[in-house]
Design a protein that fits this description.
heterodimer, A: alpha/beta, five-stranded parallel sheet, B: 196 residues, alpha+beta, four-stranded mixed sheet
Amino acid sequence: MNERLIFNCTWGREDPERATLPFVAANIAATAGQEAVVLCTVEAVRLGTRGGTDGVEANGLPKLCDLLNQFVANNGKIWLCGACTKPRGITEAHLAAGVTIIGAAKVVEEIVAGAKTVAFA
Amino acid sequence: MKSPEEFVKVLAARDFDGLGAMLDECAHGRLLLPYGLEEPKDGNSIVGHFKRWFGSASRFELASTSKEAVGSRHRLTWRFNVEREGRSEVIEQLAYVNLGPDGIQQIDLVCSGFQPAPTAETKLFDAGSMGCADGLAQEFRQQIANVPVGTLLEVVVRDPAAKEDLPSLARMLGQQVRSIESTEDGRQIITVERRK
C-alpha cells in the first residue's frame, strides 16, 4: 500500500502565497515522517528550476527558497509536470536538487497504488 | 481422478501429494528420459521422479498443454518454462496414460530434457521526443499489442517525463518492465515484456 501524500501546486512567482502554501503543508508532512511530494503544474514548474524560488516570499510565510531546501532535506520530493515543463523549455539540466520531471502516468500509478492528493492552496 | 487434464493442472501447481493421489498405488511407469529408460514400479516412485525434475525450479510456468483420447488411453502433453539455478529453460513431455478405478495405472512418458529457452525476439519502438501529453500512452499501448505475448519490446525515450511515465504505463497495462538503461546521450531504453 502506497501511503504517499501528493500536494498539488499550480502557482508560481506570480502568486507567492499560493506558490508557498503547498510547500508549507508538504514540509509539515515530511517533518512528521510522511512520504511527501509536491506536484508542480502550470507556472509552478518554474519553482523546481535552479534559482526558480529566488525572491518568492509571501507576507507571513517563510521564504520559499528556504522552505524548499528544508523540504528536500526532510526527504521531500518535488515533481514537475512534463507537459508543463516542455512548452516552457525546462529540461533536466535546469532542475534543482530533489526535483524530477514526471508525467501523468506516474501520478495515476501512484494514486492507483493508494497515494492521496492534497489541495492546500 | 475426474479427468486426465486434471493431472496436468496438479503437476503445474507442483502439488506432489495431489499427484500421488491421482495414481493407483501399483501404477507402473515407463519414462524415456534423455539418458535412458526408467521404470518406476509404484505410484510413489513415479511421483518421486516428477519431484526430482520440477521440485527445485525457482520459476515454473505451464507454457502449453494438450489432451486427446486414443482409444482407451489418454494422450497428454505439457510444456513448462522453468528457471533453475539462474538458467531459463523449457521442457516438454508427452505421456500416454491408462485410467483405472483407483487412478492412473500406467504412464508411458517421453521427455525432451531441459533445453535452453529460446531468446525472445526483441522489437524496437523509438518514441522519439514523445512525452506525457502528446500521445505516448496511446502509441505505447498499440506497440505492445503488436508483439506476441512473452516477447520483448524495447522502448527508447528521450523526454524526461516519458522516462518516468513509460514504466508506470507498462505496469498499469499488466506488462513487465524487465530493464531500464540510461545511455550517455540522455536516452533511456526501457525493455518491456508483454505479459498479456
